[in-house]
Amino acid sequence: MKIGVLSLQGGVIEHINHITKLGHVGVEIKKLEDMEGINGIILPGGESTTIGKLLRETKMFIPLRNKILSGLPVWGTCAGMILLAKVIEGEIDGHLKVMDIKVKRNAYGSQVNSFKRDVIVSEISSGPLPLVFIRGPVITEVTSNVKIVCTVDDKIVAAKQNNMFVTAFHPELTNNLEVHKYFINMCR
């Protein structure tokens, strides 16, 4: 299976390494042609405003949005979650606006407030998963067609809607491959 990782800015190589460890091909998506033939795409953590701007500059914004709306499996981690959200708290406009969620940026504070928590996410694994939060956003509202996958301290930090999956945390920064396995299964 061929899984793309949007490679305009942010944590790319860590996702590609996890995909490779699972026996699949991870490809960097830097231009429109790179999206051909992928089975799914990961929008990594980073700076959502910068990634959104670069998506427009590279002319990938509308084609990527259309592919997602047509069913391409997509997983947004941290900034990727913000890119997919229909509404960003305190902002007039969003980015791709494809997932029926409202998000709050930096809900856990600044970089110095980063933390790791071991949590059982029954949708993904029977054992606890290491969840790493770095300036993590949270989901503050969902519609009825969005499934809440994980909460931490009563805050929604992972959700799924059809072909779209989002996490406020960074599984690529751990040695655990379960969340990547979960997304690859979505791509089958």
TrEMBL record:
Q: Which reaction does it catalyse?
A: L-glutamine + H2O = L-glutamate + NH4(+); aldehydo-D-ribose 5-phosphate + D-glyceraldehyde 3-phosphate + L-glutamine = pyridoxal 5'-phosphate + L-glutamate + phosphate + 3 H2O + H(+)
Residues the entry annotates as binding L-glutamine: 46-48, 105, 134-135
An annotated Gene Ontology molecular function: pyridoxal 5'-phosphate synthase (glutamine hydrolysing) activity
Q: Which domain of life is it from?
A: Bacteria
Which Enzyme Commission number(s) are on file for it? 4.3.3.6, 3.5.1.2
Q: Does the keyword Transferase apply?
A: no
Q: Which residues form the active site?
A: 78, 170, 172
Under InterPro entries, the record lists:
PdxT/SNO, PdxT/SNO_CS
Q: Which CDD domains match?
A: GATase1_PB
Q: In which pathway does it act?
A: Cofactor biosynthesis; pyridoxal 5'-phosphate biosynthesis
Sorted keywords for this record are: Glutamine amidotransferase, Hydrolase, Lyase, Pyridoxal phosphate
- Which family is this protein grouped under? Belongs to the glutaminase PdxT/SNO family.
> Which function does this protein serve?
Catalyzes the hydrolysis of glutamine to glutamate and ammonia as part of the biosynthesis of pyridoxal 5'-phosphate. The resulting ammonia molecule is channeled to the active site of PdxS.
Q: How does it assemble?
A: In the presence of PdxS, forms a dodecamer of heterodimers. Only shows activity in the heterodimer.
Which protein, by its recorded name, is this?
Pyridoxal 5'-phosphate synthase subunit PdxT
Supply the source organism for this entry. Clostridium frigoriphilum
